[in-house]
Specification:
Layout lengths: L5 H24 L9 H23 L20 H24 L6 H23 L11 H25 L9 H24 L5 H12 L3 H33 L3 H15 L1 H28 L10
């Protein structure tokens, strides 16, 4: 795996999930994804711990985290470094996330400024996970402004899936409530579109021959199975089909109903008729999106060839 290994991949994954989970509960609390009441707490609970664990892995991946941890403190003073920006953003988000989770646990409304500050920091955390790679000029495969956009969309998607999956067990909420499936569909669709643009840019030669060689490792090289089977088929196409089906059914209910309440009742009746099978399918789908999110970060990291390397292995 070389310099960029599993610890960094898991950090990028956990950082995205944590930030995306916070925004999922934030959106549910503000009514941005309909009446998704079961999602109003779970995302806040998992956001800070996920990012904190990921940040700890990043410290270890720096090489000095275990041997000389005090050297990490010096990074706080290097304000010109993207990594230093990230340390400030991650630290602030973890702190705000923990306080927000405490208010939620105590069933007390948090100050609005705290909640909104957490949302802003969550966006910063998601963008940073992509920006961390995009500023590396020595790796043309990463060196594009599309990378932060891709990581933001993937973080929102995996964060919403993690929140929905845990809420299904912790809050006993309806898995198809509100506009959750429509939101899932929009995010997965956006990720497919951005990935298509990304690889189109690469194969156009705009990022140079090393970027093309990196993409070839994914399309028909050593990482082809991970890319096509795990990321594309399991993590994107499969969820897209199921979310599209559920979103279509919900739109059908809305067109037949005279009110949102009646539409929700119609959806619940069908869910009751199909039994646990439909619930299980959506939970598996949420899990598949999370697996796809981890696979995305792994293939992006492991396919990358620096400018001084011409191997395809």
């Amino acid at each position: 795996m070389g310099k960029w290994g599993w610890l960094l991949a898991i950090y990028l994954f956990l950082g995205g999930i944590g930030a995306g989970a916070y925004l999922s509960s934030f959106a549910a609390e503000k009514g941005l994804i309909g009446d998704a009441s079961s999602l109003k707490k779970t995302g806040y609970y998992i956001s800070a711990p996920a990012v904190a664990i990921g940040a700890l892995l990043l410290v270890f991946d720096l090489g000095q985290g275990l041997r000389k941890p005090w050297l990490i403190l010096g990074m706080f003073a290097n304000v010109s470094s993207v990594m230093t920006w990230g340390i400030y953003i991650l630290s602030a988000f973890i702190l705000v996330g923990l306080v927000q989770a405490y208010f939620v646990w105590k069933d007390t409304k948090a100050p609005a400024i705290l909640t909104y500050a957490g949302a802003v920091l969550a966006v910063g955390t998601m963008a940073y996970t992509g920006l961390l790679l995009s500023v590396v000029k020595a790796v043309p495969f990463w060196h594009t402004n599309i990378m932060p956009v891709l990581f933001i969309i993937s973080a929102l998607s995996t964060g919403l899936s993690a929140t929905s999956l845990l809420a299904h067990f912790l809050e006993k909420g309806e898995v198809k409530e509100g506009r959750v499936c429509q939101t899932h569909l929009g995010l997965v669709s956006s990720e497919i579109i951005v990935l298509t643009i990304f690889f189109g840019l690469i194969f156009s030669g705009s990022l140079g021959p090393m970027a093309v060689l990196s993409a070839q490792k994914l399309f028909y090289g050593s990482l082809a199975v991970a890319f096509w089977v795990v990321l594309v088929s399991l993590g994107l196409v499969g969820p897209f089909i199921l979310y599209a089906k559920n979103a279509y059914n919900q739109r059908k209910y809305v067109s037949l109903a005279v009110s949102p309440v009646e539409a929700l009742n119609l959806a619940k009746k069908e869910q009751a008729a199909t039994g646990t099978q439909a619930k299980t399918a959506i939970c598996i789908c949420d899990g598949a999106v999370m697996v796809g999110g981890l696979a995305l970060r792994c293939v992006i990291l492991f396919a990358a060839l620096p400018v001084w390397n011409t191997t395809l292995s």
